[in-house]
Here is the input.
Amino acid sequence: MKAVIELRDVRLAYGAHVVLNGITFSVHRGETLCVLGGSGVGKSTILKLILCLESMDSGSVTVLGHDLCSAGRSEIFKVRQRMGMVFQGSALFDSLPIFDNVAFALFEHTDLPLETIRERVREALAFVDLDFERVGEMLPSELSGGMKKRVAIARAIVHQPEILLFDEPTSGLDPITTRKIDTLIVKLRQELGVSSIVVTHDTQSACRIANRVALLQAGDIIFMGTPQQMLAAENPYIREYLE
Ligand SMILES: Nc1ncnc2c1ncn2[C@@H]1O[C@H](COP(=O)(O)OP(=O)(O)OP(=O)(O)O)[C@@H](O)[C@H]1O
Ligand SMILES: [Mg+2]
Here is the structure.
């Protein structure tokens, strides 16, 4: 299978604090990889490296065949447009209505006519089971936490990206809403063929949605395999993490 994201021997430290100590992994086309690990272990940092929002000390990150270390600004910009990101805590623009939040990338990076943008926003909202007519003019503060997450997903898919990065998409949500978001992530893979990395603290969610799971600890990937392999693993740290 072809890799759409590849990290090789990536090292990153903040001063004396080594966050990533030479990690290597890849994500295949059409695959969902879940990244698990304790707080502060470097999960969000990995997503930032893939988006080129952070720079590493050594190693390489290749996205859709582009080596991000040697890429110039315009190449990085083009690669970024082929990705969508759902940020930790949704990160919607509080003062903008839902329509403008979801349409943001299309207004910023395309010259599509307003009618086409409206249609794309309508489709993206329908994909996450939200009604454009009902929520389009509402402000984020008028929505529940689960609806905000769904809007954040609509915003991330509106420009039809090949890769989606999710940073804790279900944290703070109740179990039923969590399952709805999990179902959406699987639907994105099955219906749109999107490749994704999902950072999560929720092992049950990871087992429901992942093709493979990576477990980070103290700067290293200490496990990489299918959810079934993880559940059967005998490594004491993995057992402790799962319990
Ligand atoms: N700009 C920065 N300067 C200094 N240290 C940083 C910076 N960004 C992140 N860190 C540190 O790097 C480590 C990894 O941070 P990161 O946000 O990737 O963790 P995380 O695994 O996503 O944690 P959480 O589960 O709490 O979201 C943390 O210890 C954090 O304090
Ligand atoms: Mg984080």
